[in-house]
Amino acid sequence: MALPGKIAALGDIMQLAFVPEDFDAAVAHWTQVMGVGPFFIIEGIHLDGMKYRGEPTNAVFDLALAYWGDLQIELIRPRDNHPSVYTGEYGATGNGLHHVCILVDDIAEARRVCEEEGAEVMIEGTFGTSQAIYVDAGGGPGTLVEILQQAKDGPDLFGMIKAAGVGWDGSEPLRKLG
Asked: Boundaries of each VOC domain copy (predicted)?
C-alpha cells in the first residue's frame, strides 16, 4: 500500500514505456516473441507548450501503444535531438525500462506532491486537452514517472487500443493512428 502524500499514492502504474535503440526490432520482439499487440503508432508528436527542465523545446517523437492485459506497453522513437527525456542522458535505454505512467484526475495536485517529494519535472506539455508531466525522483533513466491527466472530451483511445488486442491474431502488428 502506498503511503499517503507520496508519489505512488497518486495512482497505479498503467504503462511501462521503452525508448529502444532499434524501434523496429522492439516492435518485432513485443509482437512476435511476447505476443503483445497490435501496436498503434502515432507519428510526429510535439506536445503543445512542451518544456524540458523548464525551457521550451521543439522535440518531436513517435510512439506506439499496445496492451498486455490491463498494462499498456509504449515504445517511443525520438525524431530529432532536441532536448527531451527521449534523448541525451535520458535517451535510448537499450531494452530497459524508460518510464512508468500513472493516470491522475488533478495534474496540479500531482505536481504539488512531486515537488514536495523533491521530484524534478523534466518534461511538461499538452496533447489535445490531455496534460502530462514527467518527473525524476532522483533515480535517473528507468525511474522516470509520467503523470497523465487524460482529456475527458475525446474518444477513448486507450480503450480502442486495448480492445484491438483482445483475441488479436498477429495480423498487422503495427497500425497507424493520426
From this structure: 12-150
Under a CB-based contact definition with an 8 Å cutoff, are residues 176 and 63 in contact?
no
Q: Across all residues in the chain, what is the average pLDDT?
A: 91
**19 three-state secondary structure:** coil
Greatest alpha-carbon pair distance for the chain in Å reads: 46
Domains annotated for the chain, with CATH where assigned, are 12-164 (3.10.180.10)
Fill in the amino acid letter for 35.
G
Instruction: Give residue 156's pLDDT.
Output: 87
Radius of gyration of the chain (CA): 16
CA distance to 101, 115, 151, per residue, from 33 (Å): 24, 40, 33
The pairs formed by 2-6 with CB atoms below 8 angstroms and a separation of 24 or more are 5/113, 5/116, 6/113, 6/117
Spatial distance between the Cα atoms of 52 and 142, rounded to a whole number of angstroms? 17
Query: Average pLDDT of 156-168?
Result: 94
